[in-house]
Specification:
32% of the residues lie in helices and 21% in strands. The protein contains 13 helices and 20 strands. The chain has helices at residues 12-19, 29-35, 41-49, 60-71, 146-162, 188-192, 195-200, 248-271, 321-332, 366-377, 394-399, 426-445, 451-460; strands spanning 2-6, 78-82, 91-96, 105-111, 130-131, 136-138, 172-177, 202-207, 219-223, 225-234, 238-239, 282-290, 293-294, 297-298, 302-303, 306-315, 339-345, 386-388, 404-407, 423-425. One of its GO terms (molecular function) is aminoacylase activity.
Length: 461
């Protein structure tokens, strides 16, 4: 079900909330400057960061209310709040209607939720959005990915400020989805299956990316897909002094040894510079469960009859999933060695045509060329396109065959997603708004003409 409201009507109470200064007990020169002007995008960003949307109890309602209220201050934007699973998991859709709605629309995606944070491990409280004297904004979600969620709206706001009558050719949508950090199964996956998504007529998607430590922007054309593998071994129990075949721990350790050799062979390619980390299959052990508990630890003179280990496996879209399944069944957990296994596949590996989940980054994809033009218009430069080492909601759009790129305009910035003391420099955030102004203008103006014709049109805008 969904609710639909036409904006900019909004209650005086919400407008008052937006005008309040951030509730910090201490200020510095940066703080004081931004507290004096709630119209300042830095203050709005910090207010959004203060909303605790970390798992396991993300406050989605507060985040949706805040974004809806801000969208209401931007002329011609419309919002929908969708409830595709349960009332506590809203999905916000913001729409800027284009002058030619028959053309496929552009979708900018961001997720509402964040991973947990340990306040005792941070320099500043992770949900205080502390603005340090050097311009660093410390907060959980500063990079992943509340920055882009606000930058989308700020960019449209600036485009409307410079020309109130400006209307994009293509319709522009912004989606704010829940649950991305825990797989996206009650968020983007449900969204792409919905009637509401099909009615959007999406032709191209920009989703989140990662920070770049250089002066080039990173862009991602694919994600790795995670498999969670649990291997269990069984065998006869025995006295700790005995040596015999087919013990549970013996069988499990044989498997662990083979898996670690596989891991090393993949890692050797990365170490030698022959492949990026995201281009190989990674296998990482995450737990080992064995032994008989005692009051002070484990029973040391008893060999257990059962043992288990868990592994996080990441497969690039170039990997053969059937070959990996055979390797697990025949080598890593063979039934003849009294072993069983369970694979939990956390998302698709192939699109609806059975092709790898990858977006072309050459002339065969006109959206790639147009995106490059937008970055050049913003004065930026793209690094070599990459496969993302982790996983995002982009895979659900790519599964439908929709060209989707991962991109976050953060350059000369340390990669701190999910880390302690996650921060984003205020100047980097503001520069990102300018980048999205160019991206939104160029992408939404593309009518299928040649790039030369598009360049000529953009120079006249």
């Amino acid at each position: 079900m969904s609710t639909r409201r036409r904006l900019p009507f909004i209650s005086a109470a919400i407008l008052l909330f937006l005008s309040l200064p951030p509730p910090l007990s201490a200020t510095n020169s940066h703080d004081q400057q931004h507290q004096n002007h709630e119209s300042d995008p830095i203050s709005r960003f910090r207010n959004y960061l203060r909303i605790n949307t970390a798992h396991p109890t993300p406050n989605y309602a507060a985040a949706v209310n805040y974004l809806t209220a801000f969208a209401a201050t931007i002329p011609t934007l419309y919002t929908q709040t969708l409830y595709l699973t349960t009332p506590d998991k809203p999905l916000l859709l913001v729409t800027w209607p284009g002058s030619n709605p028959s053309l496929p629309a552009i979708l900018f995606n961001s997720h509402l939720d964040s991973v947990p944070a340990e306040p005792s491990k941070w320099l500043h409280h992770p949900f205080a959005a502390h603005l340090a004297g050097d311009g660093r904004i410390y907060a959980r979600g500063a990079q992943d990915d509340k920055c882009i969620g606000m930058q989308y709206l700020e960019a449209i706001r600036e485009l409307k400020k410079s020309n109130l009558d400006y209307t994009p050719l293509r319709t522009v949508h912004i989606s704010y989805v829940p649950e991305e950090e825990i797989g996206g199964f009650d968020g983007m996956m449900k969204f792409v299956e919905s009637r509401e998504f099909k009615e959007l007529n999406v032709g191209f998607v920009l989703d989140e990316g990662q920070a770049s430590v250089s002066d080039e922007f990173r862009v991602f054309y694919a994600d790795r897909s995670p498999w969670h593998l649990v291997i269990k071994a069984r065998g006869p129990p025995g006295h700790g002094s005995r040596m015999y075949d087919d013990g549970a721990m013996e069988n499990l350790m044989k498997s662990v040894e083979m898996m670690m050799k596989f891991r090393e062979s993949s890692f050797d390619l990365v170490r030698a510079g022959l492949a990026a980390n995201s281009e190989v299959i990674s296998v990482n052990p995450v737990f080992l469960n064995a032994g008989i508990r005692s009051n002070d630890g484990f029973v040391m003179n008893l060999q257990p009859s059962e043992a288990a280990a868990g592994f996080d496996i990441r497969l690039p879209p170039t990997a053969d999933p059937d070959q990996m399944r055979r390797r697990i069944a025949e080598e890593w957990a063979p039934v003849w060695r009294n072993m069983t296994y369970e694979i939990t596949e956390k998302g698709p590996l192939r699109d609806y045509q059975g092709l790898p989940l990858m977006t072309a980054t050459d002339d065969s994809n006109p959206w790639w060329t147009v995106f490059n033009q937008a970055i050049a218009a913003a004065g930026g430069k793209l690094a070599k396109p990459e496969i993302l080492a982790s996983t995002t909601d982009a895979r659900f759009m790519r599964q439908l065959g929709i060209p989707t790129l991962g991109f976050s305009p953060m350059k000369n910035t340390p990669i701190l997603l999910h880390d302690h003391n996650e921060f984003l420099q205020d100047t980097v955030y503001l520069d990102g708004i300018k980048v999205y102004e160019h991206i939104i203008r160029v992408l939404s103006s593309f009518d299928g003409d040649s790039i030369t014709e598009l360049q000529n049109k953009m120079s006249r805008l």
